[in-house]
# Entry
Amino acid sequence: MLPVFLSSGLFLGWSLGANDASNVFGTAVASRMVKFRTAALVCSLFVIIGAVASGAGASHTLGKLGAVNALAGAFMVALSAALTVYLMTVARYPVSTSQAIVGAIIGWNLFSGSLTDTASLSKIVTTWIACPALSALFAVALYLPIALMIRHLPLHILTLDSMTRWGLLLSGAFGSYSLGANNIANVMGVFVPVAPFHDITLFERFTFSPEQQLFFLGSVAIAVGVFTYSKRVMMTVGSGIVRLTPVAAFVVVTAHSLVLFTFSSQALSNTLHAIGLPRIPLVPVSSSQAIVGAVIGIGLLKGGGGIRWRTLGGIASSWVTTPIFAAVICFVSLFFLQNVFNQKTYRPIEYELTPLAWERIILVPGADTSMHEQLDDIWLERFPNAQTFRQALLDRLPTAASTIPAIMDIAEIDRFRVTEEGIEGIDASYLNEEEMQAVRELAGQVFTHRWRLEEVLAESSAAWRARPDDAVFNAERRRKLKYLVDTLRSPAFQ
Amino acid sequence: MSLGILKKRIGIQKQLDDFLDQVSEASLLFRQGVDMFIGDRTEAFDEKIEQVTAIEHRGDQMRRDIEKQLYIKTLIPESRGDVLQLLERMDTLLDSCKAMLWQFKIEQPDLPEEIHDDLNELASYSVESIEAIVRSARAFFRTSPEFADHIHKVSYWETESDKVSTRMMMAIYRRDDLSLCHKAQLKDFIRRISQIADRAEDVADRLSIYAIKRML
# Structure
């Protein structure tokens, strides 16, 4: 079933490749500065590298917005986003995959009764607004020195031509890398929590996480989109965006790439944090809007004539309309998928303050024993979804709202039995012997909370214990735990 | 886009420069030729005619070569059309220098003593305008800030040559010792020489527009 469910994500990837490659290489190809074949090859290669190497950052933000927890649900989320993009493109409305997917995830959250993390949502929306503005700023900052250089260095028209060609190719490669890094989350992000993959090691040196494998598949779909359909889009220059000279195109594409890079680079964000500046939110943004922002930046620099303010208005309204449209489509189609086609679009997450959780919640930072009295009446009461449980907590803990997310994590019911078949189903080449031994000892046990399994494993074996100063090991441990729980809990083994 | 293409690009760059050299050389030959015709140095004049014919031939070949290479290698796709038009117009200037000398050779006009100085002056203004347009074209190719300076000089020399030609024609038509037929022949020579400067100015007008188009 997996390929069928992944197909909607791959379709979304294909349409992203067909549309957004023209942002990166459109002017270069349309003006015949770069051959289409060269452009398509460079674009595909760098989209794949960008997606696999640094696609994780933006995908985490989407994951926080809403973790789609059933494959059929992820399928429908991606399909609704793809449909929204398609319909709005047909209606000649400026549309971005990033906005569509966010809307679709919110649609799933509403349908499944999960919570939409408002902090993540506001972070995402702020970034959308910042994206064209920042792009305009970058474009102006690049344009001024380049224009100065061209004016004062007596470059021959042919030398400039050759420099521009190389510039367009390099900025296109950088743009494709950033596009892959930033936008792969739109294509494959929703599948990350549900795809049953585990680490693959090639040549005993390169390890690819499940996320990276998904991103690879998604970026290949993007590459197929680039090769099969983007030429047409590239050649229809002048629809929407102003026709640019090659040098201006270089500036615009570089500014766009810098913006996308900024919003997807973990390293850059860490560096800024290290020198005391605020972290950059890693959010999927719209490549087209970054381009429009850069064009407008140059337009303003030249006195503001010839700027199509309508385009700008269209963009601003799409920040609102696209997500709402996608959310509605997603909600309605999830309803059909669930009730007409009998597919499980989400795994209901129930909450209960079980005795285990009861002891744990007072250990949450900011909590104390008085909490037990306040929550006494909902002890052992089962809540069907996150929204009702959160409301119940809010009513009883009006002064300690900051502890609620942690309490919800602890109270989340994830009940499964560690069966012999489940242990057989684990890929023994992925977990080492010591880790497997610890898992085998759990056979027959039933867990009500996911964190309890992690605790028990860590108590019984050093191999499952977090090491305080080994970030790589800890990250791998988390991925292995996720794989382990996903496998043990899968319906086939229960 | 290997180093080979880079070398070829430098090759075209040199060819462009050489082509402009031919145009400027033809204009210099034209001035010398007029001077020699007036001075009645037939042999030297014939030599100049031969030289200018050879240059015109070479110029044609070079222009075709450059055009072909620009198209085959899809160089400067944005301003290719403009560059090609510029080359063709420059070639027309070169042609008119040659054609003018041939007209002297064919018609052997009888030039009255009084207009010798003016004719020399007129020819030299036309040549100055060609020189200025050649410098403008070089500045255009190199995106040099001196471009505006050179372009401005083209119009200056064109105005000067207009003034001289008007003055000459006025003087000729007010003379009683020349037949109308002779006057008409002289007028034709004067007009065609001053037309060279007019053409140079036309090229300059186009070139200014190309330059604006080339700005970012």
